[in-house]
């Protein structure tokens, strides 16, 4: 398919404007934004690269806020991965295809009630929550926002400076804004200086939920009445956490039925 035909049909060719590397295999990249492109915080885009003569598409959560005049993504380079082996080389000025349509139902708008929003992420599953927290809307909708980011190594705790700034200066101002609690957990290197920072937990999300440490640390219980929960990232974490929540009486949001949690599997 020619570039021209693709552009007029379902995708546009956008220009990479900025690349930030957090570690050897974690990066944030910004692109231009197609005219008229609209999305809700929490949704994902489909990005395309021509690789060995064929178009390869992959899903990427948007980390930019809906009103930003650029699109931003947070990605990991998967060893041997078809798409990310190519993505690893991107630099400002390069092009990337962006589907005109946006996807995904893991948005705060899925919840019709509740006063606390828990956002649980492993690894790059943090991405949609960065968008959600950059958007003023969620700060007025909930009383408490709890962001839980679980990574293997402490240097994978991306976006932490910005998230700490947001905590103190919510995007729409402090007036009536929710209180944000940021919880970081490291699973593999508890001995390093960053991981040993006060407040950084150790252990998987499921372990911290099962032993009660997460709720104790946050100072809020997870309840059917007030807690609304998002799960994003590693499918095993999501499956196991779903079972824990289910056991505690919480239910997934369904099309016609309000529930207490929504999920987004990354593979
Ligand atoms: C709804 C949705 C949203 C997504 N959003 C993001 C995002 O914001 N950032 C991002 O980096 N990826 C995201 N992904 C994953 C992304 O689409 C690709 O699967 C990933 O970039 C690997 O592509 P690849 O062709 O290089 O590897 P593939 O050859 O497709 O290899 C896939 C394997 O890589 C591993 N893998 C894939 N994605 C990840 C990941 N994010 N973290 C750790 N291991 C992974 C898994 O073991 C998986 O089996 C998302 C996926 C979905 C379905």
UniProtKB/TrEMBL annotation:
Pfam families per UniProt: FAD_binding_6, NAD_binding_1
Keywords of this entry: Nucleotide-binding, Oxidoreductase
Protein name according to UniProt: ferredoxin--NADP(+) reductase
EC number: 1.18.1.2
Organism: Keguizhuia sedimenti
Keyword hit for Oxidoreductase: yes
One annotated GO molecular function: ferredoxin-NADP+ reductase activity
Gene3D superfamilies in UniProt: Nucleotide-binding domain of ferredoxin-NADP reductase (FNR) module (3.40.50.80), Translation factors (2.40.30.10)
Catalysed transformations (reactions): 2 reduced [2Fe-2S]-[ferredoxin] + NADP(+) + H(+) = 2 oxidized [2Fe-2S]-[ferredoxin] + NADPH
Family: Belongs to the ferredoxin--NADP reductase type 1 family.
Residue ranges of domain FAD-binding FR-type in the record: 9-109
